[in-house]
Input
Amino acid sequence: MRPRVLLHVCCGPCSVYPVRVLLEQGYEVMGLFYNPNIQPLQEYLLRREAAEMAAGELGIRIIFQDRDAEPRFFLRQVVFREDNRCFLCQQMRLERTRSVALRGGFAFFATTLMFSRIQPFEQIQMLGKSLETGKCTFLDQDFRTGWHQGNEQSRAMGLYRQNYCGCIYSEFERFRGKLGPSDEQ
Ligand code: SF4
Output
């Protein structure tokens, strides 16, 4: 029987390379889309659809946990702690992945966040390892080596590509330049 891994999927494009690698390594892969950080809802739906499309193309099952997508859930985790929001955001998603993996009897859990060259790899690696239990091991793999390949493949699949990380803070940071000069003295 193949070892089972529950793979946290942050978005469709980031899932392509890690899923292919894990399948080649002999794992049985199931995706988990749990990303309450993605706001607003229309953006969430676009990324959700892309994750579903990618899973279909790659031939894996994916489960969606949408209940926490209501904005106040994520905002209450980070408000007044914005300077540490990325750590809290990664922790929330990895903790949920580990807990679903444990409930489902998966021997491993992993995340597509470790594909991204934009995300803080070492921090996510450390978080994942800190959540390991005797029954469920964090798959510590550097998927960034397939950055170009994965992006090319996801473009060929026609997957939606986002232009900011996910939360409304990151959307503001990405587009704040459009505000023009500040009126503050
Ligand atoms: S910038 Fe990205 S990782 Fe950081 S809190 Fe926002 S969505 Fe999460």
